[in-house]
């Protein structure tokens, strides 16, 4: 069943009907419910977030444990996190799919090479698919290792710590991340995330750029799936019984708004001061989607993968 839903929304001819896709801009309360944040104060709010009292948080009735936060980012916040994903998280010491092809020397990285040469950019921009941070996910073995680990970015840890607190997951610790890079023709096949030692800890998925159709099914491939619009800034938290459900992205759609752009001259001045290469990054995100997928690897109290008990 999941495969059937995936093929339907991926199809170009005939195109799918998006009428059944859950749209949190127009919430259908027969399918979704409001969730109140666990905290009211804004102490510890991470970089680029609006005041928590302005957040809109939902749950899907048929998918217990799945939490949706509709874009809680400011305009400058979107610019900050898009820049981090595109320019910084794609750089060493983080690992990318491009490392497998030996395209760069140890002093080169994807974004700098794309910025330095228009001809090089045409070739390289579409090639980046993923970057791993912290505990590096091994795509062949589907395992983590103490021998393949770097430090997690402090800003990403603070962001997910804030999100976890709002969603009542006070023990969450960000230990690994996969940043996915989508072009307009990209897809992500149906899968479950089960490589972590602690599969009960929530998984945080933060998206920017173009719009995705996100599918989430059941614990078996034979179960039906729900489709959701995910726009720039939207956050999906997979927790409890939703944590091991099959999910994927069959389609990327052109965004119906650009919340990373501002009409304010003050914001534009601030943006140029903070992000000198924003014009190039904006050009990239206008035809791409980036997604930060952050998870906890170890059980609470466990200090390493070599130590199986807290």
Task: Provide the descriptors you would attach to this structure in a database record.
Jelly Rolls; 22% helix; alpha+beta; nine-stranded antiparallel β-sheet; single chain; 310 residues; 7 helices
3D architecture notes:
The chain has 310 residues and is an alpha+beta fold. The model has no long low-confidence stretch (mean pLDDT 91). The chain has helices at residues 2-10, 75-88, 110-116, 118-124, 154-166, 265-274, 278-285, and strands at 32-34, 56-60, 66-70, 95-96, 130-134, 176-183, 188-191, 203-209, 211-216, 226-230, 235-238, 247-253, 288-295. The chain contains 7 helices and 13 strands. Helices cover 22% and strands 22% of the residues. It has a single domain (2-295), classed as Sandwich (Jelly Rolls), CATH 2.60.120.590. Strand 2 (56-60) and strand 3 form a beta hairpin. The longest helix is centred in the first third of the chain and has 14 residues, at 75-88. The termini are far apart. The protein has a 9-stranded antiparallel β-sheet with strand order 1-2-3-11-8-13-6-5-4. The relative contact order is 0.20. It is globular and about 50 Å long.
The name of the CATH superfamily reads Alpha-ketoglutarate-dependent dioxygenase AlkB-like
Total beta-strand segments = 13
State the helical fraction: 10-25%
CATH topology-level name? Jelly Rolls
CATH architecture grouping? Sandwich
Which series of helices and strands comes N to C?
A: HEEEHEHHEHEEEEEEEHHE
- Let me know the average pLDDT: 91
Distance between the termini: 39 Å
- The global form is globular
- Largest beta sheet, briefly? 9 strands, antiparallel
Percent of residues in beta strands: 15-25%
């Amino acid at each position: 069943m999941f495969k059937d839903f995936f093929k339907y929304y991926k199809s170009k001819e005939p195109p799918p009907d998006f009428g059944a896709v859950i749209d949190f801009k127009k919430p259908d309360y027969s399918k979704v419910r409001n969730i109140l944040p666990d905290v009211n104060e804004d102490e510890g709010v991470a970089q680029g977030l609006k005041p928590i009292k302005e957040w809109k948080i939902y749950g899907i009735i048929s998918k217990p444990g799945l939490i949706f936060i509709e874009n809680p980012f400011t305009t400058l916040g979107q610019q900050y996190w898009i820049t981090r994903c595109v320019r910084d998280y794609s750089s060493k010491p983080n690992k990318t799919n491009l490392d497998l092809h030996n395209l760069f020397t140890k002093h080169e990285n994807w974004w700098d090479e794309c910025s330095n040469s228009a001809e090089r950019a045409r070739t390289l921009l579409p090639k980046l698919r993923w970057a791993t941070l912290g505990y590096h996910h091994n795509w062949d073995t589907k395992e983590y290792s103490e021998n393949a680990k770097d430090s997690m970015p402090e800003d990403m840890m603070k962001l997910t710590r804030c999100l976890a607190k709002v969603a009542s997951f006070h023990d969450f610790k960000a230990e690994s991340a996969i940043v996915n890079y989508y072009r307009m023709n990209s897809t992500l096949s149906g899968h479950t995330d089960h490589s972590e030692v602690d599969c009960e800890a929530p998984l945080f998925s933060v998206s920017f750029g173009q719009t995705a159709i996100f599918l989430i099914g059941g614990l078996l491939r034979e179960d039906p799936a729900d489709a959701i619009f995910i726009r720039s800034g939207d956050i999906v938290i997979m927790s409890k019984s939703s944590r091991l459900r099959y999910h994927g992205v069959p389609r990327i759609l052109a965004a119906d708004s650009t919340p990373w752009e501002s009409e304010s001259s003050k914001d534009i001045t601030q943006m140029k001061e903070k992000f000198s290469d924003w014009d190039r990054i904006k050009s990239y995100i206008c035809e791409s989607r980036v997604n930060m997928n952050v998870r906890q690897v170890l059980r609470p109290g466990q200090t390493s993968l070599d130590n199986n008990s807290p």
